[in-house]
Design brief:
The complex is a heterotrimer of chains A (296), B (363) and C (325). Chain A has 296 residues and is mostly helical. Chain A has helices spanning 11-55, 61-65, 80-111, 116-129, 133-148, 153-177, 181-189, 194-223, 226-229, 249-257, 262-293. Helices cover 39% and strands 19% of the residues of chain B. In chain B, the strands form three sheets. In chain B, strands 1, 2, 3, 4, 6, 7, 8, 9 and 12 form a nine-stranded mixed beta sheet that branches. Chain B starts with a helix and ends with a strand. The chains are: A mainly alpha (296), B alpha/beta (363), C mainly alpha (325).
C-alpha cells in the first residue's frame, strides 16, 4: 500500500487506505477468534467421541447400580459404589471449599484491597493453586490418615477441598472486584451497612461468575485421581458413610483403564462417560439456577 | 453381647491354633500332595467377622482379588479389600497401622525393620514369570539369554539382525529392524526382579542399577504399569519389553524363551516357574529368591511376591480374620492361582508358612 | 434543619449497635475464611518440608544442581534439575498454546458470537472442563501419541536444514520419537487449562462497562478496535490472574502429565523427545519409595512450591501493580 508523497497528500486515497487496513485487521481478528474456538473444541469433540465409542456400549441401569466386581477381569458387576463415592466425596469437599472460598474472596475484594494481610493471602492462594494434586493427597495422608489409622471418604474430601479452594477464591475475587462501584455506592447511599451491601447487592451481581468458578473447581475435584490414591482406599460395595474406605469414578477409571483385561477397560470408559455426564449435568443445572437469581 | 463376641473370637482362635498344630504335625508324616493336606485339615473354621484392609504390590493384585472373592464365600462376615498402589505404599501403610496386611514384591530393608512396632512377618503367596515380550512380524519363536537382553536394554545391541541374537537363533531369519526397548516408567517390583535377574545372570554385561527403578537409557519408550509396557510394545514394530505373564497373555503378545544358567531353553510358563521355585531355598523368615534358577525346566525370570503382616494385633476380631484369611490362601487359595496365571507355591513352602501362623498373636 | 439533626442522630444511635454487631461478625467471618488459606498452606509447607528433611542430610547441593536421578544405586543420587526442566518446559508450552486460544474463545463468547451460538459454545467449554484429567492422559497416550509421532517425524524432516530448529523440533535420535514427549504433554496440559482461563476471562470481559464499548463503536471503531481499546485495558489485571490460575494447574497436574511425558528424565532442547516432570515422577515412583528416596520425592514437591512462588513473584513484578493482583 503506497502513499504518494510528491505533492499534497490525496486525502481520499489516504483515508481509503487506512480504512482498508482497519477492516483487514478486524477481519483477521474475527477469523482468529473463530479459529481459536475450533482449535479448542475439535480435540475436545474427538476425545468425547472416543469416550462414547469405548464406553457407551456398556452403560445400563445394572452397570450404574451394581456393586464393583472384586476381580477386575470379571465382566459382571457395575460402578454403583464409584458413583456413590464420587457424589459423597466431591459433595462434601464442595461444602467445605465453596463457602470458605467465597467468604475469603469477599474479604480480599471488599475489606482487603489495601491491607497487607490480604495481599499475602492472595499471593498464597495463587501458590496453593500450583501444588501438585499428589502432594495434597500425601499431606492429608500424613496429618489425617496416619493420625486416625484409617483411610476414609472424609480424608479424600479434605484433599479435594484443598485442591478446590484456590480456584474458588481467585475466580470469585476476580469477579467481585469487577462489580461496578456504582452498585455499591448506591447501596451505601440508601443507608445499608457493608455486610448487607455485600450480601444483598454485590454477591448477587457476581453470582454467574462465582458459579462459573465454583463449577470449574467441582469439575476439577470430580476428575482428580492423585489426591485420592493415599486417602480413599477401595470398596467393592456401596459405602454411604463418611468413614470407612470408599472409591470414586476417577480412581476406578485410572485403575481399570490401565489394565490389560478388556472387561476392566470397558468398565473404565463407561465410568469416564458417566463422570462426564454427571459433571455436565451439574453445570447445566447450576448455570440455570444462577441465571434466575442474578441481578445485572 | 460383648462377652458373646469375645467368646466367639476365642473359640475361633483355639480352633485355628488346634487346626494349625494338627496340620503341621500331619504334614511331617504324609507325602506332600495338596489334596491330602486339605483333607487332613480340621472341620471348617467357625465364622469370624472383621475388616481387613490391604494395599501394596499391583503385581499380585489379580491373585489377591481371586482369593478375596473366594474367601468371601467361606467367611461372609469378613470384609477384605486390597487397593494396590505399589509395594512401597503397602509397606508404609502397614507401618502406620492403616492396613492390616500389605502386598510386596521386595523385601523390607534391615534398617527399616525397627519401624514396624508390632513386628513384621513375611507370607509368600504365589509367583509368576516375567516374559520378554516382543513385536516383530514374521518372527514367532525367539531365544534370548541374559547377556543379550542386557545388551538390548543398554542399547548396545541396536538391530534385530545383530550377530549376538543370530547366534542364539540359528535358522531364523531376523530382519534389519531397529530394536525399541520398552521399560517401566513407574517404580515397580517387576522392574526390581527383572533388573536383579540381569545383574545376577549377566553381572559383567549389565552395568545399570538394579532395583525398583533403573537408569535405563533416556530415549527408550517408557510405559506405565505392566499394561503400559504391553501397549508400548504393541504400538511399535520392533519393540521388546518385560511384561508379567498375565498381562502379556491378556494383551496377546508373543514372548521369547530364555536360555537359563544350565543352558536349557525354557519358555515362560507356570510349570517353568514352579520348577524355579522348587530349586530355591526358603529362609527361616520365609523369604527366598527364585531368580536365575537352574534346571532343565526352570524359567529363570520368576518373580516372588509376599503378603506382609505385623506379628501382634490388638483387636481379637482382626487377628482371627487374618488367620482365617491366610489359612485360606494356603488352602483353597493355592488352587485358585493357575486360573489367574500365577504359579502356586511348592508344598514345602506352604507347610513352612502354615507353621508360622501360630506366631500371629494378640498384642 | 437544626431541629432535625438531633432526631436523625438519635434514630441512628438506636439502630447502629445492632447493625454494627452483624457487620462485625460478618467481617471477621470473612477474615477467618481468608486465614484458612494461610493455615492450610502453612501446614502443607511444614508437613512436606518436615518429611523432606532426610534429603538435607543426604546431599542438598546435588539435589538442586545435578541432573542425575538414580535412587537405587549403591550410592543413591537425587538430582532434581531434569524434572524442574521438564515441568517448566511442558508448562510453558501449555501456556503458549492455551492463552491465545482461551482469549479467542472468551472474545468469541463476549463479543463476536452470534447470539444463538453463545449458549452452545459455553456448554461445550463446560464439557471440556468436565472431562477428567485422567481421561485426557489416557487419550493422550493411547490415541494422540501414536498419531502425532508421524507429524513430529515430518516436522523434524522439514526442520533439518535449519540449524536452530533442527534441534528444537526433533526427538532423541533425530526422528519423531515415540510421541510421548514434552510437546505432547504441553498439548494435553493446554487442553486441560483452556476451560479455566476461558471461563474466567470471559466473565471478566463481560464486566466491561457497556457505556465504554458503545462509545467506542459510536466513534466508528471496528469491533476489533473496540475490543483493543476498551475490553483489553479493563481486563488486564483480571486476565493475568486467570492465566496464573491456569499456569498453576499446568504446574501441578500429575496423572495426565505422567502418562504422556515419556518418563525419561533429561535436559535437552529437543521438544519431541521424552522427558519427565516433578509431579509426574512423584506419582510414578512414590508407590515403591521408602526413606531417603521418599524424602527426595517430597523434596521435589517442596521445590515445586518454591518455583510456583517465584513464578508468581515474577508475574507481579512484570505487571508492576502488586495490590491489584
Amino acid at each position: 500500500m503506497t502513499i504518494s508523497v510528491a505533492g499534497p497528500l490525496d486525502q481520499g486515497s489516504l483515508r481509503a487506505g487506512v480504512a482498508r487496513r482497519r477492516v483487514l485487521r478486524n477481519t483477521l481478528a474475527t477469523s482468529f477468534v473463530w479459529l481459536a474456538v475450533a482449535v479448542a473444541l475439535v480435540p475436545m469433540l474427538i476425545v468425547i467421541v472416543y469416550v462414547l465409542r469405548k464406553g457407551g456400549g456398556v452403560i445400563s441401569a445394572g452397570f450404574l447400580t451394581n456393586d464393583l466386581p472384586i476381580q477386575a477381569r470379571s465382566h459382571q458387576g457395575g460402578i454403583g459404589p464409584a458413583i456413590v463415592g464420587t457424589i459423597l466425596v466431591t459433595g462434601f469437599a464442595s461444602l467445605l471449599a465453596i463457602p470458605v472460598g467465597v467468604l475469603a474472596a469477599v474479604y480480599l475484594s471488599e475489606y482487603g484491597s489495601q491491607s497487607r494481610l490480604a495481599g499475602v493471602i492472595r499471593f498464597l492462594s495463587d501458590v496453593m493453586a500450583g501444588v501438585p494434586s499428589i502432594v495434597m493427597g500425601l499431606f492429608v495422608f500424613t496429618i489425617w490418615v496416619l493420625r486416625f489409622k484409617a483411610r476414609s471418604g472424609v480424608a479424600g474430601s479434605l484433599a479435594l477441598a484443598c485442591l478446590m479452594l484456590p480456584i474458588v477464591i481467585r475466580s470469585a475475587e476476580n469477579i467481585l472486584r469487577l462489580v461496578p462501584r456504582d452498585l455499591r455506592e448506591a447501596s451505601y447511599a440508601l443507608g445499608a451497612r457493608r455486610s448487607r451491601t455485600i450480601l444483598m447487592v454485590v454477591l448477587p451481581a457476581a453470582l454467574p461468575g462465582i458459579v462459573s468458578g465454583s463449577l470449574l473447581a467441582v469439575a476439577r475435584a470430580a476428575g482428580e485421581t492423585a489426591p485420592l490414591l493415599f486417602t480413599l482406599g477401595i470398596t467393592y460395595a456401596k459405602n454411604f458413610k463418611p468413614t470407612g474406605e470408599n472409591t470414586a469414578l476417577s480412581a476406578q477409571i485410572f485403575s481399570n483403564a490401565s489394565s490389560s483385561f478388556p472387561a476392566a477397560q470397558t468398565r473404565a470408559w463407561g465410568a469416564a462417560l458417566t463422570l462426564i455426564v454427571l459433571v455436565v449435568a451439574l453445570s447445566v443445572v447450576a448455570r440455570f439456577v444462577a441465571s434466575r437469581f442474578t441481578v445485572r | 453381647m460383648i462377652r458373646l463376641r469375645y467368646a466367639r473370637a476365642a473359640t475361633a482362635l483355639v480352633a485355628l491354633s488346634l487346626g494349625a498344630a494338627a496340620c503341621s504335625s500331619n504334614s511331617s508324616s504324609s507325602s506332600s500332595s495338596s489334596g491330602s493336606i486339605a483333607a487332613s485339615n480340621t472341620a471348617p473354621a467357625p465364622k469370624v467377622s472383621g475388616t481387613l484392609n490391604g494395599s501394596g504390590s499391583t503385581f499380585q493384585a489379580s491373585f489377591d482379588q481371586a482369593v478375596i472373592e473366594g474367601f468371601k464365600k467361606d467367611q461372609p462376615g469378613v470384609a477384605v479389600t486390597y487397593s494396590g498402589g505399589g509395594s512401597g505404599k503397602g509397606k508404609t501403610d502397614l507401618q502406620g497401622g492403616v492396613d492390616q496386611f500389605a502386598g510386596t514384591d521386595s523385601l523390607v530393608k534391615d534398617a527399616d525393620k525397627s519401624k514396624y512396632t508390632n513386628g513384621l512377618l513375611y507370607w509368600p503367596i504365589v509367583a509368576a514369570p516375567i516374559t520378554m515380550s516382543y513385536n516383530l512380524s514374521g518372527v514367532d519363536k525367539l531365544i534370548l539369554d541374559a547377556p543379550t537382553i542386557a545388551g538390548i536394554f543398554q542399547e548396545q545391541i541396536k538391530t534385530w539382525n545383530d550377530p549376538a541374537i543370530g547366534a542364539l537363533n540359528p535358522g531364523i531369519k531376523l530382519p534389519n529392524t531397529k530394536i525399541t526397548p520398552v521399560h517401566r516408567s513407574d517404580a515397580s517390583g517387576t522392574n526390581n526382579n527383572f533388573s536383579n535377574y540381569l545383574k545376577k545372570a549377566a553381572p559383567d554385561a549389565f552395568t545399570l542399577t538394579a532395583g525398583d527403578t533403573t537408569n535405563w537409557p533416556a530415549d527408550e519408550v517408557a510405559g506405565n504399569g505392566n499394561p503400559g509396557v504391553a501397549s508400548g510394545i504393541k504400538q511399535t514394530s520392533g519393540a521388546i519389553g518385560y511384561v508379567d505373564f498375565s498381562d502379556a497373555k491378556a494383551s496377546g503378545l508373543v514372548f521369547a524363551s530364555i536360555k537359563n544358567k544350565s543352558g536349557a531353553v525354557v519358555a515362560p510358563s507356570l510349570d517353568g516357574t514352579s520348577a524355579a521355585l522348587s530349586t530355591a531355598t526358603l529362609s527361616p523368615d520365609l523369604t527366598y529368591s527364585p531368580l536365575n534358577a537352574d534346571g532343565a525346566t526352570a524359567y529363570p525370570i520368576a518373580t516372588p511376591t509376599w503378603i506382609i503382616t505385623a506379628q501382634k494385633y490388638s483387636d481379637a476380631n482382626t487377628l482371627a480374620a487374618l488367620k482365617a484369611f491366610l489359612t485360606y490362601i494356603y488352602g483353597p487359595g493355592q488352587g485358585l492361582a493357575s486360573g489367574v496365571d500365577f504359579a502356586k507355591l511348592p508344598d514345602s513352602f506352604v507347610q513352612q508358612a502354615k507353621a508360622q501362623l501360630i506366631v500371629l498373636s494378640a498384642a | 434543619m437544626s431541629a432535625e439533626v438531633p432526631e436523625v442522630i438519635e434514630r441512628r444511635a438506636l439502630t447502629a449497635p445492632q447493625r454494627a454487631i452483624g457487620d462485625f461478625v460478618f467481617r471477621y467471618l470473612t477474615v477467618g475464611s481468608g486465614l484458612v488459606v494461610l493455615v492450610v498452606l502453612a501446614l502443607i509447607a511444614i508437613a512436606t518440608t518436615g518429611q523432606a528433611l532426610p534429603l538435607f542430610h543426604h546431599n542438598l547441593h546435588q539435589f538442586l544442581f545435578s541432573k542425575v536421578w538414580n535412587p537405587q544405586a549403591a550410592r543413591p543420587q537425587f538430582g532434581a534439575l531434569g524434572f524442574v526442566f521438564g515441568t517448566v518446559v511442558s508448562s510453558a508450552i501449555a501456556l503458549m498454546l492455551a492463552v491465545p486460544v482461551s482469549v479467542g474463545i472468551a472474545l468469541f463468547l463476549a463479543e463476536f458470537a452470534p447470539l444463538r451460538l453463545r449458549r452452545p459454545v459455553t456448554f461445550l467449554v463446560d464439557l471440556l472442563a468436565a472431562v477428567p484429567s485422567v481421561v485426557f492422559g489416557l487419550w493422550g497416550v493411547l490415541v494422540l501419541a501414536p498419531w502425532i509421532r508421524h507429524i513430529y517425524a515430518r516436522l523434524a524432516g522439514w526442520a533439518h536444514p535449519v540449524p536452530g530448529l533442527r534441534v528444537l523440533l526433533s526427538a532423541g535420535q533425530g526422528g519423531g520419537g515415540s510421541g510421548r514427549s514434552f510437546f505432547t504433554a504441553g498439548i494435553i496440559l493446554a487442553l486441560m487449562i483452556t476451560p479455566i482461563v476461558t471461563a474466567l476471562t470471559r466473565e471478566i470481559y463481560d464486566t466491561t462497562p457497556s457505556g465504554q464499548k458503545e462509545a467506542a463503536l459510536a466513534l466508528g471503531a471496528t469491533r476489533w478496535e473496540m475490543v483493543r481499546g476498551t475490553i483489553f485495558p479493563h481486563s488486564r489485571a483480571g486476565f493475568v490472574g486467570a492465566a496464573l490460575l491456569g499456569l498453576g494447574r499446568a504446574l501441578g497436574e500429575t496423572i495426565a502429565a505422567a502418562l504422556v511425558i515419556g518418563s525419561s528424565v533429561q535436559v535437552t532442547g529437543r521438544l519431541f523427545s521424552s522427558g519427565d516432570s516433578m509431579a509426574a515422577v512423584i506419582a510414578n515412583q512414590f508407590g515403591e519409595a521408602t526413606d531417603t528416596f521418599r524424602a527426595a520425592l517430597i523434596g521435589l514437591g517442596v521445590l515445586l512450591f518454591i518455583i510456583t512462588i517465584l513464578v508468581n513473584l515474577i508475574a507481579r513484578a512484570i505487571l508492576g501493580r502488586t495490590e491489584v493482583l
